[in-house]
Structures are given as structure tokens and as C-alpha cells.
Amino acid sequence: MIRWPAKFLIVAGFLLMILQGLSELIKRFAYLKGELPFSAFRKHAHEPSEDMVAIIQANQSGPTTKQ
Length: 67
Fold this sequence. Notes:
- This protein has one domain (4-57).
- It is 63% helix and 0% strand.
- It has helices spanning 4-32, 48-60.
- The protein is elongated, with a radius of gyration of 23 Å.
């Protein structure tokens, strides 16, 4: 059985992890310089309260009829 694919995937995984670390480091420096808001570090694109507002607005628009 050939071993080079497994060895390549290990090296590729480490390279991708290094790139992710550099990306995070650049983001941190941009935040420290004031060029990036703190919200850029969140993993979600919106607040949970925004979901609740959307649900409440949908419920207040009136009942829907099912056919």
C-alpha cells in the first residue's frame, strides 16, 4: 500500500492550520489598530435577538390560511 497520500494529507493539514493562524493574527492586529469591529470575531452572522424580532414580526403580520 502506498503511503505518500497519507503523508501528504498530514502536511497539507498542518499548512492549512498555519494559514488559519495567520488569518486570525491579521484579524487581531486589525482590531488593535481600530480597523475592525469586535463583532468580526463572532462565529455567527447575527444576534439571536434578531431571530426573535423576525419571529415576532412574522406572527404579528396576521394569520395565514392553509389550503
